[in-house]
Structure formats: structure tokens, C-alpha cells
Amino acid sequence: MIAREDVAGENRLVAYYKLSDASTDAESVCTFLAGSLAEYMMPEAFVRLDRFPLTSSGKLDRKALPCPSPAAPASATTRT
Fold first, then answer.
1. pLDDT tops 50 at residue 20
2. Which whole number is the average pLDDT over 63-77?
3. What is the 8-class DSSP label of residue 37?
4. Read out DSSP for 13-76?
5. What backbone torsions phi and psi does residue 71 show, to the nearest 5 degrees?
6. What is the model's pLDDT at position 71?
7. What number does CATH give the domain 2-64?
């Protein structure tokens, strides 16, 4: 989960996730997190990735994470 500032001055939490089970969707992830996180910590968007982008040194490349659709509800997903 990271805070993104896609629009100047507007931060939002975005959860990026990767699952080996194709039957699990963003709604299931959202329901699971709702039982564990405070409401203010819940992401506004969920993005499902087939694999996480890595830098040449093998670390997560945060700049290469895709931007979720601005109008996408929390249950929408993007595949990369």
C-alpha cells in the first residue's frame, strides 16, 4: 500500500496486490482489510498486478507502479 499524489495536493492510498489464486478479487481483499484496518487506513483503490515492477537491483520500483483510474471504485482492478 502506498500513498499516491496523482493530482497535485490530493493524496490517496492505493493497494497493489498480487495473488496466485485467480478467483480472488479486489472485493475479497477489501473485505479482508476492512476487518484488520481502521477506516482511515483503508485504500481508496486496489490494483491487481501479475508481477511487481523491480529495479535493476531487484527492489520494488515504486515509480513504475501503474496509476489506478481516478474514477475507479475501490473494487476495480488493473492488470499489468
1. yes
2. 68
3. S
4. EEEEE--S-TT--HHHHHHHHHTTS-GGGS-SEEEE-SS--B-TTSSB-GGGSPPPPTT--TT-
5. -100, 5
6. 53
7. 3.30.300.30
Report the number of secondary-structure helices (H) and strands (E) in the chain.
1, 3
Phi, psi of 26 (to 5 degrees): -65, -35
Q: Are 44 and 74 in contact (CB under 8 A)?
A: yes
% of residues, the chain, pLDDT over 90: 35
- The residue written with cell numbers 483510474 in the block is 69
What one-character DSSP code corresponds to residue 56?
Answer: T
Distance, C-alpha 13 to centroid of its chain: 8
CA distance 34 to 14: 14
Residue 54 per-residue DSSP state: B
The runs of H, that is alpha helices, within 13-73 are 26-34
What per-residue string of b and e applies to 12-22 under the rule 16 or more CB within 10 Å gives b?
Answer: ebbbbbeeeee
